[in-house]
C-alpha cells in the first residue's frame, strides 16, 4: 500500500503536471506505464508508428498549451519518435517523449534494443534527461513539462531505464511536486512600445504579419481589437491563418507577394523571418523595410534582419500594449490610401484568376475545382489539417479558416506524414471537449502514404475525421493509367518511371473501408460534393474521399514561386 512503482510515479507525475493525452506504442519495457497512465485518467491513444504518435502528441500541445505525452519503447521506438521531436521543435510546439530503455545492469552489454537515447534525443529537443532513481521521477517530469512550455516551446525527452518501471519505493520517500503553472507573462519594454507605435503611425505602407506564435499565444481577441482599431492590413502565415478570420476585410492574404514586397513597416507577430517569410530580405521584401519584431524568444530577435524595434515578451500582452498605444489618441490608418487600393486591386485580380480555374468543368478535375467545392461545403468551425505540395499550397489559398488553431499543416519543417497524427490529436482534443467537431484532413496522395496506416487508429477510436486525398498519381504530378501501362511494356519500371510517380488511381479509399470506415472514389464535381456532404452530415464513421484529379494539373502562374521550396 505504501509502495509505488516507477510506472505509477510516471503516470501520477504526468497527471499532476496536467498532461491529459498520451500517444504511443507499447512493448517492453513500457507497457505498464501506459496502463498506469490510463488508470490515472490520462487518455491513451495507441498508434501504429511512433513518428505519428509524436506528431499527435505535439499537436495536442499546440492546441491546448499543455504538452501531450508520447510513449515509446527503447531503441527503434525512440528512433521513430525523433522525427516527431524534430518537427515539434522546429514548430515550437511542446511535447514530452517518454522512452523506455535497457535495464541499467545490462548497459553496454548489448542489451535488447539498447541505444544511447538521452544523447540521441539531445539534438531534437530542448531538454533530455534520465531520472537517476525512482525518487527523481516527479521532479524530472515536472522539469520536462515546464521546459516544454516555458520560453520558446519545444520537445523534451525523459528516459526511463527498463528496470525502473516495475521497481518500487516507499511513497514517503518521494517528494511530491505541485503542477507547474502556465508560463509567467512578460511585457515588452514601455519605451520600445512607444517607439513601435510611432513608427507604425508614420508608415506609408504598413503590414501586420500574424504567425502561429500568435495562435499558440492565444492573442486572437487582443489582435482583433488591434487590427480593427488601427485599420491595418494583415497577412497570416500558414498556421497563423484563422487567428483572425480569412474573410476579415483587413486580410490581404490574396495579395501576399505584393504586400511583402512593398510594405515599408512590418509588425511581425510570433512569426520567424525564415524560409517561409523569405528571410525578410530582397527580392521578396523592400530592402529598407522596418521590422517591429514581437517574439517571446530573445534569441530570435535580429535573425536575418535587424529589427527597428524588438518587442520581447508574451504576444497577447504585447498586442494589448500596442493597442493601448494606438488607442491613446484614437489613431487609425486611413482606408483610402494608395496602399489599400494597390492591395485591393491585387486581391481582385488574383481572385479572378483562381475563380476561372475553379469553375473549369473539364474532366478530370484540377486542384482549384476540387478546393472550390470543398470550401463551399466545409463548416466554418471545422479543423483543417493539410499536407502535400500542390495540395497543401493551393488548398491553403482556397480553404478559409475562421477560428484560431484550426489549421495544422506540414509547418516550418515541411514534414510530410504529419497529417494523420495531427488529425487524430485534433479529434482527441475535440472529443474530450465534447465538441466533436469534424476534422478535415486534406492530403496529397504521397503525403497520405507516410502515415496511412493510422487510418486504423481513426477507425478503432471512431474519430470524427474526414480524409480527402487529392490524388494526382504522384509527388507534385503523375501519369495517367494508360501512360503507365505503356511504360510497363517498355521495360523495367525502376529505370523508366519518373521518380515523382505513384501507382495511378490507387484506391486509398479502400484503406479506409478495410477497417470499417467509409470510402468514396470520386471523379466528378457531383460525386465529390455528394461524398463530402454524406461524410459531414450523416457521419457515422471516419471516411476517406479519394479524389482522382488530372495528374498534370498544376498551380496557376505565380509572380514569385511562393512556398514552393518543397517543390524545387
Ligand atoms: C518527410 C518528407 N519526405 C519527403 C518530402 C519531400 N516532399 C515534399 S512534398 C512531397 C509530396 C508531394 O506530393 P503529394 O502529397 O501527393 O502532393 P501533390 O503536390 O502531388 O498535390 C514530398 C515527398 C518531405 N517534404 N518530407
Ligand atoms: C513488469 O512486471 C510485469 C508483471 O510481472 C511483467 O510482465 C513485465 O515484463 C515487467 N516489466 C519490466 C519492464 O520488467
Ligand atoms: Mg500527389
From TrEMBL:
<feature type="domain" description="Thiamine pyrophosphate enzyme central">
    <location>
        <begin position="193"/>
        <end position="322"/>
    </location>
</feature>
<dbReference type="InterPro" id="IPR029035">
    <property type="entry name" value="DHS-like_NAD/FAD-binding_dom"/>
</dbReference>
<comment type="similarity">
    <text>Belongs to the TPP enzyme family.</text>
</comment>
<dbReference type="GO" id="GO:0106359">
    <property type="term" value="F:2-hydroxyacyl-CoA lyase activity"/>
</dbReference>
<keyword id="KW-0479">Metal-binding</keyword>
<keyword id="KW-0276">Fatty acid metabolism</keyword>
<keyword id="KW-0443">Lipid metabolism</keyword>
<dbReference type="Pfam" id="PF02776">
    <property type="entry name" value="TPP_enzyme_N"/>
</dbReference>
<keyword id="KW-0576">Peroxisome</keyword>
<dbReference type="GO" id="GO:0005777">
    <property type="term" value="C:peroxisome"/>
</dbReference>
<feature type="domain" description="Thiamine pyrophosphate enzyme TPP-binding">
    <location>
        <begin position="391"/>
        <end position="547"/>
    </location>
</feature>
<feature type="domain" description="Thiamine pyrophosphate enzyme N-terminal TPP-binding">
    <location>
        <begin position="5"/>
        <end position="118"/>
    </location>
</feature>
<dbReference type="InterPro" id="IPR012001">
    <property type="entry name" value="Thiamin_PyroP_enz_TPP-bd_dom"/>
</dbReference>
<keyword id="KW-0456">Lyase</keyword>
<dbReference type="GO" id="GO:0000287">
    <property type="term" value="F:magnesium ion binding"/>
</dbReference>
<keyword id="KW-0597">Phosphoprotein</keyword>
<dbReference type="GO" id="GO:0030976">
    <property type="term" value="F:thiamine pyrophosphate binding"/>
</dbReference>
<dbReference type="Pfam" id="PF02775">
    <property type="entry name" value="TPP_enzyme_C"/>
</dbReference>
<protein>
    <recommendedName>
        <fullName>2-hydroxyacyl-CoA lyase 1</fullName>
        <ecNumber>4.1.2.63</ecNumber>
    </recommendedName>
</protein>
<dbReference type="InterPro" id="IPR011766">
    <property type="entry name" value="TPP_enzyme_TPP-bd"/>
</dbReference>
<dbReference type="GO" id="GO:0001561">
    <property type="term" value="P:fatty acid alpha-oxidation"/>
</dbReference>
<comment type="subunit">
    <text>Homotetramer.</text>
</comment>
<dbReference type="InterPro" id="IPR012000">
    <property type="entry name" value="Thiamin_PyroP_enz_cen_dom"/>
</dbReference>
<dbReference type="InterPro" id="IPR045025">
    <property type="entry name" value="HACL1-like"/>
</dbReference>
<keyword id="KW-0460">Magnesium</keyword>
<dbReference type="InterPro" id="IPR029061">
    <property type="entry name" value="THDP-binding"/>
</dbReference>
<keyword id="KW-0786">Thiamine pyrophosphate</keyword>
<comment type="pathway">
    <text>Lipid metabolism; fatty acid metabolism.</text>
</comment>
<dbReference type="Pfam" id="PF00205">
    <property type="entry name" value="TPP_enzyme_M"/>
</dbReference>
